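[Discussion] Sanity-checking designs against the backbone

I'm trying to build intuition for which residues belong where. Below is a structure token string of 659 positions. I'd appreciate it if someone posts a full sequence so I can compare it with mine line by line.
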């Protein structure tokens, strides 16, 4: 990752930001790059880049910072893949890149395709292109959202930076808080991915491009649309042929993400996704003719913990003669200086498993690697939930529905009947039916499939005034297809929550000195997976049938075999950690809540639900409570910085007492 920024005045103003402003903005983003930097000022524009020294290796980001070519000025935070294919496509347009760095290739792509260039790039990227000849600005972000990008239109000046704090550091940017966005984060409602916690600053959404002519305001357009998921019974080729095609795609996706001169780690769990990545990456290295082994880095859970997959991990590593770099979950704190971390964050959102990911990144460094591959994307692409039962009911496949329902353990008890209604009937309700039920229930709208509603501790008056529910439905992916299974796949590929998570995890890894890459979440793999029939993702108790068949022989059969119960479940670690530590954090904070002061939450209602959770547990409730607590700590750091520090000291004291 790299810190990039651009400041562009209107054509009739020609005001150039000072180097002091550029350094101030880069300093606000120093976690993304602090060792080398370059600031270039022009008539009416400034472009700057900062990078960590370790990322300047030729097969990582390289030592090119700001690139300039034939009137184009480019700042790029990018790891581009399939470069040979890109060069071939550029050649057909008569464009030859003048260098090998990502910024050079982006400049060439802009020369070839203009503002549409991002659609031709494959990789993890955010970039800014300024055309000195026309004054036009183009900035874009990859569809997964691994690299972040924010902007503000400040009068005639357009400010763009890798992070919200980078934009906020511009002296003309107001710091007025966006209470609606803060409330949405506290409620766990993330569909409006363009909004930030500041009214003046917007995110460039994942898969979107920002473009501005010198005399106009910036405009956004999507450069990537998720593929339409197959809701038919058959794919384009047989199951066996499809598995062979998928293996080829996965091997190439892994090979493209492994720099030849760098040690590479794989965050290996015992599940099928990361095991598949490890297997195809080893196969790709073997075909490349290298004897270098990958470094599996894995989380070890105690015997009896639902997260434990140590034995499966050992089997996969042994298949390729690799030694596992273990990280013990008992050494990973769930909370670590939470108020300080909240104060450092750009936004109120916090990833629940931040320390878990940081520990794996540190394990990667202990293994001598700077690049790590993960298994992110497998759940979205290669399985589907029980919602496909609703499709079977709607299409009259009742025998298959009954067979799969029994295979999943469903029966005819009261609990099973309720689950049948939730899983099979609710997803089929039309919007008209939901409105009718809402009227009968005196305004209490039934929660639709994949919908989010504010928890009860968000004040109803605030939620109504700021239209939190309507806002969430408006920005969430819309179900335009009949198939529930197809909609679920497309929802996972397009909802703004996931780029938020992907960007956060990538940033954790970067701060620990690791470039995290995801072979399964490759555009070519995604397009192929979406084209395959539903039954290859889930049938009865079987899931991920196509992925498992594709890596047969690369992963031990014992690892790929169906399992009697789920393994690798992190809810045990989450639940135990939260229920033990949450009260020490929340009790003091919520006695004088900043969120309550601005009218977002009812602190007493939050306290009641906190006590209920500590007594009874509940994964989704715990996650939502955590979102609210993290939003509270973030807001305090902005409006009560002294109180936030005192709270941190009290938390540290109580931690010492408990230990």
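Best answer:
Here's mine. Compare freely.
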């Amino acid at each position: 990752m790299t810190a990039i920024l651009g400041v562009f005045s209107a054509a009739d103003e020609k005001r150039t930001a000072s180097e002091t402003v550029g350094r101030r903005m880069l300093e606000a983003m120093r976690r993304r790059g602090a060792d080398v930097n370059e600031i270039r000022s022009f008539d009416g524009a400034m472009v700057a880049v900062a990078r960590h020294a370790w990322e300047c290796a030729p097969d990582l980001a390289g030592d090119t910072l700001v690139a300039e070519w034939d009137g184009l000025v480019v700042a790029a935070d990018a790891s581009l893949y399939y470069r040979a294919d890109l060069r071939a496509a550029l050649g057909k347009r008569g464009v030859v890149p003048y260098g090998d760095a990502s910024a050079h290739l982006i400049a060439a792509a802009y020369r070839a395709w203009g503002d549409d260039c991002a659609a031709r790039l494959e990789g993890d990227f955010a970039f800014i292109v300024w055309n000195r000849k026309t004054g036009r600005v183009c900035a874009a972000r990859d569809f997964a959202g691994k690299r972040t990008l924010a902007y503000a239109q400040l009068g005639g000046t357009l400010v763009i930076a890798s992070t919200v704090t980078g934009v906020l550091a511009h002296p003309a940017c107001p710091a007025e808080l966006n209470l609606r966005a803060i409330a949405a984060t506290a409620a766990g409602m993330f569909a409006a991915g363009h909004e930030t916690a500041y009214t003046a600053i917007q995110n460039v959404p994942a898969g979107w491009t920002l473009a501005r002519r010198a005399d106009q305001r910036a405009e956004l357009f999507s450069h990537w649309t998720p593929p339409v998921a197959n809701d038919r019974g058959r794919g384009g080729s047989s199951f066996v042929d499809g598995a062979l095609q998928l293996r080829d795609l996965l091997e190439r996706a892994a090979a493209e993400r492994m720099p030849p001169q760098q040690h590479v780690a794989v965050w290996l769990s015992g599940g099928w996704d990361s095991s598949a990545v490890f297997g195809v990456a080893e196969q790709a290295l073997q075909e490349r003719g290298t004897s270098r082994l990958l470094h599996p880095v894995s989380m070890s859970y105690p015997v009896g913990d639902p997260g434990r997959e140590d034995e499966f991990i050992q089997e996969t590593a042994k298949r390729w003669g690799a030694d596992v770099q273990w990280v013990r979950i008992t050494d990973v704190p769930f909370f670590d200086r939470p108020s300080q971390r909240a104060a450092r964050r750009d936004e109120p959102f916090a990833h629940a498993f931040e320390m878990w990911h940081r520990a794996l990144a540190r394990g990667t460094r202990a293994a001598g690697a700077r690049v790590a591959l993960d298994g992110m994307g497998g759940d979205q692409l290669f399985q589907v939930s029980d919602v496909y039962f609703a499709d079977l009911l709607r299409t009259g496949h009742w025998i298959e529905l009954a067979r799969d329902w029994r295979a999943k353990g469903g029966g005819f008890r009261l609990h099973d009947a309720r689950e049948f209604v939730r899983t099979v009937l609710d997803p089929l309700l039309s919007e008209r039916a939901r409105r009718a039920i809402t009227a009968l229930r005196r305004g209490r709208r039934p929660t639709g499939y994949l919908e989010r509603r504010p928890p009860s501790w968000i004040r109803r008056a605030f939620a109504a005034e700021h239209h939190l529910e309507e806002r969430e439905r408006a920005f969430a992916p819309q179900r335009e297809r009949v198939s529930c299974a197809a909609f679920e796949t497309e929802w996972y590929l397009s909802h703004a929550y996931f780029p938020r998570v992907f960007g956060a995890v990538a940033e954790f890894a970067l701060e620990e000195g690791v470039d995290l890459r995801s072979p399964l979440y490759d555009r070519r793999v995604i397009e192929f997976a979406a084209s395959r029939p539903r039954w290859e993702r889930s049938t009865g108790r079987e899931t991920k049938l196509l992925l498992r068949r594709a890596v047969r022989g690369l992963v031990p059969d014992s690892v790929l075999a169906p399992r009697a119960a789920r393994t690798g479940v992190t809810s045990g670690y989450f639940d135990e950690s939260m229920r033990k530590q949450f009260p020490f954090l929340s009790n003091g904070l919520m006695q004088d809540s900043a969120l309550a002061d601005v009218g977002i939450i009812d602190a007493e209602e939050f306290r009641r639900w906190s006590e209920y959770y500590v007594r009874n547990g509940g994964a989704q409730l715990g996650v939502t409570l955590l979102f609210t607590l993290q939003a509270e700590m973030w807001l305090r750091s902005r409006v009560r910085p002294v109180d936030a520090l005192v709270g941190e000291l009290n938390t540290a004291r109580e931690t010492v007492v408990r230990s």
